[in-house]
Amino acid sequence: MSNLALPLARRRPKSVLPGFGLTLGLTLTWLSLIVLLPMVGLFAKTSELTFSRFLAIVTAERTVHALQVSFGLSLAAAAVNAVLGLIVVWVLVRYEFPFRRVVDAIVDIPFALPTAVAGIALTAIYAENGWVGSLLAPLGIQVAFTPLGIMVALVFIGLPFVVRTVQPVLADLNQELEEASASLGASRWQTLWRVVLPSIGPSLVTGFALAFARGVGEYGSVIFIAGNLPGVSEIAPLLIVIRLEEFRYADATAIAVVMLLASFALLAIINGLQRWSERRGRAG
Amino acid sequence: MSIDIVGVTKQFKTFTALDNVSLQINSGELVALLGPSGSGKTTLLRIIAGLDWPDQGEVRFDGEDALSRSVRERNVGFVFQHYALFRHLTVFENVAFGLRVRRGPAKLPEASIRARVNELLSLVQIDWLSDRYPAQLSGGQRQRVALARALAISPKVLLLDEPFGALDAKVRKELRRWLRHLHEEMPVTSVLVTHDQEEALEVSDRIVVMGRGKIEQVGAPVDVYQNPATAFVHDFIGETVRLPGEARGGSLFLKGQPLGLDAQGVGDGPAQILARPHEVELAPPENAPFAGKVLALRVFGPNRRADVEIASDQGMMVVEASVPLDRDISVGARVGLLPHRYRVFAATA
């Protein structure tokens, strides 16, 4: 009996969590089908181009500008969301007020609303004859059909990412930390800056990254409000669609590859930043 | 600094956490607030700290009103049960926190901050951990950091909320000895909240026993243990054997039979006779005030415990008595119980 049991035990180390092989297999298969395969297709299509042609496409003035608009405004919108989203979180977590649950639910609207609907609604409001647009027009501020309009759309769709990421972390934050800080003589502002923000920092960075990633890929809500002027308010995803409609598939995938790599690089930086700030809090 | 608490009442919705509590704490004293959970001891501590405010009453530091000052203006060191360390800061920076947030003339130069923090870290014997983060420390080490952090602001009052409650028994014992030692070296007025009687008895100069929002007794540890003022205190501190009886004209009776015990001034009516287990001796049933059948026997460290069933006016009741190991008794035997030291209180309810 023991002779038989020994090699068996050696072959299959015991684990409290069985099913590793099965679940890992499923995970890899699924990820390959859903994520990896389309990406391979993307690179395969792009490889039809010669390298000089690829360079010419991605360094064309219109492409560069579209990429600048997409990445620049996404970063800006994510930054705005990080600040304003944090305030929304603070209010939702820290105060009791009537209709708090309603306000909490409103945050999710950008998740649920079809992006085209959001784009049309925002355009209607921010156009020169819209509710908000007509108030801003006399001040010389034009929102709809300008890069500012794109930013408004990106802030709209990115907000819930920040709120939903930071909210549970702030809710879990031990109130005693703030009491300890106050008992040590810190002002409310010092407590916020030195205790609360560092504690929720990693989640805020994650929320920022999610809002940014969402903004870079956003298409539906932006194209209605952007005006889509090449070289001014044209986003990279739109340029890709335009190239597709012109049947210049390889051109489209070339821009897509650049977007993919740039997004990947930026998210890697953000992830690194987050891990660094988390490591300071846990083990090092 | 002395602390005066006068007529403090605090209500949480329908629950009365503190009911007209008055207490005087002398300068340099270490006082333990001892009581079961829900007795209001933590609420009282938080009111002294300025983390909660009473509905009624006064709190005075050295005769000056403290309630008009916020927690950051009271200069109190507060130590939390679960440490409440800043996990994104090193041990050194945790301790330095209270010095770094100072503004204006109170602000210290960097060199003084470093010197002060190093001094405190060696005082709490963890100077070798100064670069670690809280997550890398054991519970005992974390509580030392929390204590050093609270002491860094040179507090006039040190408030400790169940500081050793989350630690294992051995570390707890070691830390409370050390805290007592620290207090003798640095006699800051200290208030310690605990539900652990052993901790209160060992560490404090005076014990304040609290129950259901009221102070039951204030006294030196020996006093509180040996002369409990109420049945609650007797029951809460140390082990208690509860025997039935009725007071009549200065004597005690059970089912109309005289027990031969003194009523200790308790007025006529149902009484309870409380004693420590080791003060209740086994005796021949015919010579003892109480007699009953042994239901069960347990070995309990150096001695044995016997569950003895006694008939009382309210029916049968089970009393736990201490039995010497060499005493030969068995389950089912009839034994007598003779309390040679006991306290009598009027029976409530």
Radius of gyration of chain A: 24 Å
Oligomer state equals heterodimer
* CATH class categorisation of chain A: Mainly Alpha
* Class based on secondary structure composition and strand pairing of chain B: alpha+beta
Radius of gyration of chain B: 25 Å
Shape field of chain B: elongated
How are helices and strands ordered from N to C of chain A? HHHHHHHHHHHHHH
Distinct helical segment count of chain B = 9
The biggest sheet of chain B, with number of strands, parallel, antiparallel or mixed sense and barrel status, is:
6 strands, mixed
> Strand tally of chain B, please?
20
Beta-strand share of residues of chain A: under 5%
Order of helices and strands of chain B: EEEHEEHEHHHEHEHEEHHEEEEEEEEEE
Structural class from helices and strands of chain A? mainly alpha
What is the C-level CATH assignment of the largest domain in chain B?
Alpha Beta
Would you tell me which CATH topology of the largest domain in chain B applies?
Rossmann fold
Distance between the termini of chain A: 47 Å
CATH topology (fold) name of chain A? MetI-like fold
CATH architectural group of chain A? Orthogonal Bundle
Mean pLDDT of chain B: 87
Please describe what this structure looks like.
The complex is a heterodimer of chains A (284) and B (349). Chain A has helices at 2-11, 20-46, 51-59, 61-94, 100-106, 109-112, 115-126, 133-136, 147-172, 175-183, 188-217, 220-226, 236-245, 249-281. The mean pLDDT of chain A is 87. Chain A is built from 14 helices and no strands. Chain A is mainly α. The longest helix of chain A is centred in the first third of the chain and has 34 residues, at 61-94. Chain A has a single domain, classed as MetI-like fold (Orthogonal Bundle). Chain B is α+β, with helices and mostly antiparallel strands and 349 residues long. Chain B is elongated and about 80 Å long. In chain B, helix 3 (91-100) runs parallel beside helix 5 (139-152) and helix 4 (110-123) packs across helix 5 (139-152). Chain B has two domains: 3-233, Rossmann fold; 239-346, Nucleic acid-binding proteins (OB fold (Dihydrolipoamide Acetyltransferase, E2P)). Chain B has helices at 41-49, 71-74, 91-100, 110-123, 139-152, 169-185, 197-203, 221-226, 231-236; strands at 3-12, 15-25, 30-34, 56-61, 64-65, 76-79, 157-161, 189-194, 206-211, 214-219, 241-248, 251-254, 257-262, 269-275, 280-283, 290-300, 303-312, 315-323, 334-339, 343-346. Chain B is built from nine helices and 20 strands. In chain B, helix 6 (169-185) links the parallel strand 7 (157-161) and strand 8. In chain B, the strands form four sheets. A six-stranded mixed beta sheet of chain B has the order 6-7-8-3-9-10, sandwiched between helices. In chain B, 44% of the residues are buried. The longest helix of chain B is centred in the middle third of the chain and has 17 residues, at 169-185.
